[in-house]
Amino acid sequence: MNNTVHVELEGLFLLYYKEWYFLSYSYLKDREEAEEIVQDVCAKILVRNSTEKILNLKSYVIIAIKNSCLKKLKKQQKLVSLTEIDVDCLLSDEDTSVLDDKIFLIHKALEQLPQPSKDIFIRCVIEGEKYQFVAESMNISINTVKYHIKSAYKKMRIEMIGISFLLLFLLKNIWKQ
């Protein structure tokens, strides 16, 4: 990490934190999430391994905050549309029991993965992070990320014979609970 970017970002953070916070808050309407977005954006800039120089760091941070807020809102919108469906009304007690069993098997299969594959699978598939970002943050190649995801899917298929991979979308909501 370039030390000049670190010093510049620290100065900008102290000077513009409130402005960045209010920008984030104007999108999210939640104090904790707004603070989290600003801190995450700054932290990501500090740990990024890219060799390209950021010409205007203040503008870069503002755009990154805006994009992070929009991405979070998009995820929330998807979750709201899924949770608006009252699954309990659609399923009988027997169906709910079967669904719970399948979700348990998915968790079990995920827990049996080797730690690197498990971490990468969770970040890319469940949390929706980009392969490139995960590769950079873990200091590995993008092909290594692809290998671990492919390996995780292969091992999980063996563990979950008879379970539709469409149930993995449920795992996204359940994993965070």
From TrEMBL:
Tree of life domain: Bacteria
Entry annotated with the keyword Protease: no
Keyword Kinase: no
Matching InterPro entries: RNA_pol_sigma-70-like, RNA_pol_sigma-70_dom, RNA_pol_sigma70_r2, RNA_pol_sigma70_r4_t2, RNA_pol_sigma_r2, RNA_pol_sigma_r3/r4-like, Tscrpt_reg_LuxR_C, WH-like_DNA-bd_sf
GO MF annotations, alphabetized: DNA binding; sigma factor activity
One GO cellular component, as annotated: DNA-directed RNA polymerase complex
GO biological process: DNA-templated transcription initiation
Coiled coil region boundaries: none
Pfam families cross-referenced by the UniProt entry: Sigma70_r2, Sigma70_r4_2
Keywords: DNA-directed RNA polymerase, Sigma factor, Transcription, Transcription regulation
Residue span, HTH luxR-type domain: 128-155
Family assignment from sequence similarity: Belongs to the sigma-70 factor family. ECF subfamily.
Record-given protein name: DNA-directed RNA polymerase sigma-70 factor
Annotated organism of origin: Flavobacterium flevense
